[in-house]
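Internal ticket #5521
Category: modeling
Description: The requester needs a full-assembly model to guide mutagenesis choices. All entity lines are attached below as received. Residue total reported by intake: 883.
Assigned to: D.W.
Attached entities:
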Amino acid sequence: MSSILIVEQILNGLQFGVMLFLMAAGLTLIFGVMGLINLAHGSLYMVGAFAAAAVAGATGSFFLGLVAALASAALAGAIIEIVVIRRLYDAPHLDQVLATFALILIFSEGTRWFFGSFPLFLNIPQALSGPVTLPGGIEYPLYRLSLIVIGVAIAGGLWLFIERTRIGIQIRAGENDREMIAVLGVDISKLYTLVFALGAALAGLAGALVGAIQSVQVGMGEPVLILAFVVIVIGGIGSIRGAFIGALLVGLTDTLGGVFLPEFLGLFMEPGAAQKSGSAIASMGIYILMGLVLIWRPTGLFGARA
Amino acid sequence: MRVTERYINGVVLTGLLVLPIWALAMDEPFTITLATRAVVLALAAVGLNLALGLGGMVSLGHAAFFGLGGYTMGILAYHAQTYSTLNLGLFSTDGTTSMPLIWLSAMVISALVAFFIGMLSLRTTGVYFIMITLAFGQMFFYFAISWAQYGGEDGLSIYVRNGFPGLNTLVPIQFFGICFTLLCIVLFLFARLQASPFGLALNATRQTRSRVQAVGLNPTRIRLLAFVLSGAITGLAGALFADLNRFVSPTMFSWQLSGELIVLIVIGGVGRLMGPVIGACVFVALEHFLGALTDYWHVYLGVVLLCIVLFGRGGLIGLLTGKEGAHV
Amino acid sequence: MSKPILATDALSKQFGALTATHDVSIDLNPGEIHAIIGPNGAGKSTLIKQICGEIHPDSGRVLLDDRDVSALPPHVRARAGLGRTFQISDLCMEDTVLENAILGCLAIEGASWRFWGAAQKSKTLRSRAEGALDRVGLANFRDTQCSSLSHGQRRQLEVAVALTLSPRAFVMDEPMAGLGAEGSRNLTALLDGLRVEAPILLVEHDMDAVFALADRISVMVYGAVIATGSADDIRQSADVREAYLGEEV
């Protein structure tokens, strides 16, 4: 096995991981600040992807597509927060699950109604297409490399935002004591709408960015949503740092497991069988990782200890 | 007019029995199939209701057990019909096409998996529990897709329905009879369990964990056992569902199915004996009639569901009896 | 002197910079009511939680009948004989009064793994539960849903559920909390009669009740016990007057 393949797969895993982070960051913020489980986060990912594909298709500009993805997902997020989610903050978890499940049905079927059942395609912008040669002579797609850079940059920006800005301080305070910051004159409901829209925008951005390397279709959001849940269980609810580490772990485990497990099993079994059982077991890799973390630390790597 | 729950229960079960008999007289086999579908979904949801309604465990991964039941049937029948041997390391089998054996295997396998999932997920509570069960459900989904030997993404067709001693299961009304009888047995057991000391303790773990501990009971063990029983029942329903369609595919493991099972329960009434049965009937009826009107009937289902959550608690039984349901 | 039924040995617990309990050693002898008083935040509830196993101490031990139970989870301690009541009524609000009492009987009757036969129809469970309800004066409310009980009745039911366990020792966290004068008097009379069944470790703010009931009183301030003695000793202790009643004297 060549070292080039290994580096390439590690980069693929990182790219997958940072995109998962964009999803998980919003989810974990919403959990942490509002105590809400939002199944419809995957729909916001889909909204972003569709908006980007539609606008980029109409204008020919990938950049405008990204702007549209951010704006439409944030707007959709703000609307559902105001209309539905707001009524669920103090509701039992079952109600939150049901209402956000209902939102998935409405978003998915609504999108199918509007755009039809066929997938849309979003092209990689000209400037970012083609491979780039990395030190060591490894050729890697420039677009995927850009995704890693963008993801890491957003993670850094988000960290600065939460740690250093006034709104970030309010958000952190809100995680600890809702009543207190209300007493201090912070408009809680505006803050919540803002946090929700921010999380939605990140999901929408992820949808658009990933949409250029996969097809844009109804139902694309939920598998990513579930992976983001795995990320959060591993990282710990409410922790941005946990979401980042968890996302990279999941991204790398999934990508590397899928490639190397069949090869590894090939050392002991005949190639055909190794390929089959290897990919079957690799599909369970991240869930096994999650199980191990749960045994070791039920509240996640960076979650508050019970 | 307010009616008692017992009365509603009687009417629903009788209606569910009379409808296919009427359809038989009218020679409309498709209606019998629809009724069978409702009965099997109801059985799956009764299983979930044990965990969700009595134990307060919001499992978003019950499709795992439904799918396991389905694949147990699929794999056993596949080997029996192709005269091949299933080698499991420690022991091997030539498969079977006998329903009772398939049911037993489906329940045992689902229960075992529920035990492991429960061991891990019950270390946590609240949103963690929801996310973890959802994730494990998805794990089986991907596993089934990548397991090429049994059809992978395309699923596995079983051309002849499995047999039950003394009956011709290919006759729709006879297969309905089997499913309906099983549903009635499980409902009876559910009612007994609900009233039993174990049911009382389980119900208490949903309401206050600290109180249960303070009276000397281990809430996690009580919940784990309920989760295992719940998984076994849903697994049984999965085996029947596979026999109904004579086909299993990874969609039996899908998270949508897990969500829909919860929806069934909520439509009927959480924690109520017949809640899942009423929910399943309403769901299958909506699916059939709305689905005929528009391809996008899930939009309406979503809106109805939102209204139930935001405005009406207790489901249909709650609406009719004027009593709120269990709080989860 | 007889051996104590329940004892703590140098229990200490820190929450960050806050000392919740510091080196607390108290005991509870057969037949007595031992009251623990102290200002808010003195660590009384944290002490109870450590005794019952809901919080793990940083150091120190809890002894029940001379057996070290420090490592055991709450439900095992309950089974070993700790009958606990909560400061804020912790009952199954959707269930009836009788069902709540039956819940208390399940562990001791070994019935929690019975899946057949209605709990309400079991003679053994029912007679034990009804006995406890009789004792606290809730016999006529057995079929009332717990959520429709008055606050005072819920406090009584808390005691009844603890009674169903037939505990070796009661551990009561402010049983009088929120009760009016009459409710307090009734509950005081009830607790007075309970000590013959099992001794009571009583955390309480209602000083009338404490001085009427307690054989011994311990005073906690800033997580430490500063004095233990009879009601008269405590009234006269200079330390207590200074620390506890400081600003009023």
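Resolution: model delivered.
Comment from assignee: DSSP finds nine helices and eleven strands in chain C.
Ticket closed.
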